[in-house]
Amino acid sequence: MELIIHDNYEEMSAAAAHLIINSIKSKPNSILCFASGDTPKLAYQLAGEAAIKKNIDVSKSFFIGLDEWLGIPPGNNGSCHYFLHHYLFNSMNLASSQFHLFDAMTTDEESECKKMNHIIDSKGGIDLMVVGVGMNGHIGFNEPGTGIQSNAHVARLDEVTKIVGKKYFNNEVAINKGITVGLKQVMQAKTLLMIANGKKKAPVMRQAVEGPVGIDFPASLIRNHSNGILIIDREAASELKTK
Ligand code: F6R
Question: How far is the CA of 37 from the centre of ligand 1 (A)?
Fold first, then answer.
């Protein structure tokens, strides 16, 4: 794993955006799988702006939403669906044939997972996976203890995820279950980019970078990825022993 520490959120986001744009430039038919959440907001905005400014052809790329809150409609601005459209898809002017997102309103969760697995497999796997890290070390909704061989699945959300998750919603909503691309698919991505910022992520980064590697703290698994890149800001790095 490569660890890169930037001075602040803006520089961390610019570095992540650069990597996203480079991935598309070097392989125009890239398959990209992206998390939602507070961390990647600016990176996606910058990537969208750079694509327009530098006239990058994104028309052959395909985007996958990493996860979704089950039961939260796509129009809710706390949904991952809303987030990805708002921060990335709209600015990149993507056609609907260029992305696949989990349907949070599905009545058939199993076939929703199968659909995602089929899309990832039929496209030859994910080129670039961009993830944030939960306060409990989760990646996507791969909560602590999730099997390393998991494909897309429905997850019963951890208490920490439910509490922290309230920040995304304007109104009180029931968030009990999530649907997510699995750890096996995360680990099989050709490049795994993980980003984290802010003081509150410092203990999380300490555990990910210096704690034991394993499913009890999924973010630590990036250390087993042959092309894992962890880009964080100075605040998130502030509790690391090895800088
Ligand atoms: C959201 C997702 C989550 C977040 C994580 C960090 O799509 O996959 O795993 O990446 O909870 O969230 P933020 O960035 O809000 O701190």
Answer: 4
